[in-house]
What does this fold into?
Amino acid sequence: MRAAFGEEFDVPDGYLNTASIGIPSVAIGDAVADALVGWRVGAGRASEFDEPVARAREGFADLIGVGVDRVAMGPAVSALIGLVAAAVPDRTRVLVAGGEFTSVTWPFAAQAGRGVEVTEVDLGQVGRRAGEFDLVAVSTVQSADGRLVDLDALRAARASGTKVVLDATQSLGWLDADLSWADAVVAAGYKWLLSPRGSAWMAIRPELAAVPVAAGWYASADRWADVYGLPMTLAPDARALDTSPAWYCHVGAAVALPWLAGLDRAAVHAHCVGLADTFRAGLGMEPAGSAIVSVRREGARERLAAAGVMSAARAGAARLAFHLYNTDDDVARALDALTAR
It folds into this structure.
């Protein structure tokens, strides 16, 4: 058992794979387990899940720094970005980073039949070239290797008229950065937000068009009154983009997101990046300001696994991720595995 930022975790020693799957605190896990017991004995009631869905939504709004009326809820990043991609005008020019996670790029590529053109450039060029395009869709932190996009350059491009859609899945929960200015910010819950897989959110500005192509009863202005028939009466805010929630996922998220939103974000950032940069220094790498480290050494993943270090194989490298429950001992274990002769 580990204690971190006021919570306890059952995370095993050497677990450096949060960029794939985040480990819930005991409180988060217990909330989900209790809800599952209720399901098993027939005690669950559909309407009772509205409260955790609302708490999770509020937590996401607080993490981004926007009003809760701007937050839509869905099952995954691609499903939410797809609502934006379906609404862009014909022949929209979209800029993305080369090697970007497909949940960011494919929803726009799927609009090619309408003349939507997606251009890939190196991540280092995204900020410089953003002003040449109608819309930029990019991760704040790259999934494959932890590189950060130039948020200041994107913010400047937005001021000049370029729409900016950010996927914060690999940063929200550790990166201390203001994202509230973006046109849309999307994140999945099951990594750094320590929630069950099946929950995701999007903070969207009203002026960025999105099409509620999966609209159903949960997108209604009065969800329990509008479960049958027409006319369609969508909610007047971002809830119009909601899809029916995966209940038990939101039970966990309702504990995780408000807790994360209430932490000292600068302290969390310093902890996570400090561990990652200490690890990088031990391998002779320059600091990068990211909680994700990509190691391109022959046999790295195998040596880490043999030492009991959980990492991931991404883009031909071993990917390690340092979150708030990790410690100097995890860093030492990983370094020993990679530097021992």
Remarks:
- The first strand starts at residue 2 and ends at 4.
- The CA atoms of residues 137 and 165 lie 5 Å apart.
